[in-house]
Every structure is written in C-alpha cells, then in structure tokens.
Amino acid sequence: MNFWKKSGYNYQQLTEISEEALLLLVNAMDRKDIIEWLAWNDPNGVYHDEQSLKELGNIMSRAEGLEILLKQVEENRIV
After folding, report:
1. CA-to-CA distance for 56 and 53, rounded, in angstroms?
2. How far apart are CA 73 and CA 66, in angstroms?
C-alpha cells in the first residue's frame, strides 16, 4: 500500500489542510513520496533522479524536496 492510501490523503489535499496537519503529513513522507508529489504538482520540473542527474548533475535530497514541496503548497493554498 502506498503512502497516500495509508495516510488517507491525496495529492491535491496538501493545499487544503491546516498547516499543522500538513507538517505532520509531510514529516511522515519519504523522499520518494516527496518526489512523486512534486512531479505531479509541477510536471515541467526536474525532480526524478535520472532527469536531475542528466540536467543538473545531482539528485535532490529529502530536505531539499521537502523545502520545495512546502513552498509549492504555500503558493497553491486555497484561501
């Protein structure tokens, strides 16, 4: 079972939940879950390892991905 099924949330709901719930949820996400969400939210971004290595020469750490995810969620929050 994947993270999203276990958590009871879907990708879109990250922009709709409280900050407290968001932080609890993202802190439970592993690097792969973060990359999957980022790629879903920004299909033109460079998040997957193979593409990142080819275009940027490195891969994104979990901490970097988490920082980007939180920024993107904040930019897309439903007010």
Report:
1. 5
2. 10
